[in-house]
Amino acid sequence: MAKPGGRGRPPTSVDIARAAGTSQATVSRALNGGRVAAATRDRILAISRELGYTPNAAARSMVTSRTGLVGVVVSDLTNPFYPEFLEEIAAAVAARGQHMLLQNAGSVELLLQQRVDGIVFTAAVEGSAEVADLAARRFPVVLANRVVDAGCDSVEGDHPAGAAAVVDHLAELGHRRIAVLAGLPGASTSARRLDGIGRRLAERGLPPPDVRETGFDYDRAVDAATDLLTAAAPPTAIVGLNDQVAFAVLNAAAALGVAVPGELSVAGFDDVRQAAWPTLGLTTVRQPLAAMAARSVALLNERIDEPGLPPRHEVLPADLIVRRTTGPVRT
């Protein structure tokens, strides 16, 4: 395709519209993250790249009152779950012609100063005044992975179903003494997974789990697992409420010479990439990261377009992935 600028003139949205066979308004929506059919957006973005189109951010902001910037807030980049989730969010944002600005916890004031069009929170905890304040001001906010009671849009995995699947798997392997290393107080991921495990055990007529708090902290999880495994009647299975905690259990067991899965079964949640490594082979509940990211970004853009929409809450399927760290109770 010949570049239409001519005489050194840079291509414009009018040139893209002419090449794509669409209106300039459609091109504008596609380039600014507005509502456009996926196939149309992909064609427009491909043509814009081929023509060498570079949007003028300042001019676009003045015309549309938008910057094309999406803020994303995380809390713990040492947890491998978050870098993987951020990859998926960045891809979903870029697919809409937008750009992601990342903030690692703390105040969102810097994001607001950059005039982001909306914010995705990936690690909100109950009682977050910042989330509640933004939602009350009708600033576009979406909660991804963790949810709080703040009247805003949210997307999460099906934690109760995942928890029930873990309990069913362990119970079918003959486990009765099950411990749980819980996460951060106020985190919906920890609360819903723990509640789901407790409910399923009760439904099966099994004893409640031995719960130890770790705050999703690796070192605390190692200490908790060590304490459990050196008790007079140690558990035959330990469930970490995320994979990082489950990895801590595996390392504590190795240090004590406890065989996995011969003497101890271990399971986690999230299914980060390391979980599938042959040396780990962690049984875990897979979070649908790509789907969560895509839906979170879609809901955010719908909220940007229509601030008066009622709050939406979406729950996506979570699947148990059985690997080598779980096995039958030794008799």
TrEMBL record:
Record keyword Transcription regulation present: yes
Pfam families named among the record's database cross-references: LacI, Peripla_BP_3
Domain HTH lacI-type intervals: 11-64
InterPro entries: HTH_LacI, LacI/GalR-like_sensor, Lambda_DNA-bd_dom_sf, Peripla_BP_I
Any GO molecular function: DNA-binding transcription factor activity
Keywords for this protein: DNA-binding, Transcription, Transcription regulation
Presence of keyword Ion transport: no
Protein name, per record: Transcriptional regulator, LacI family
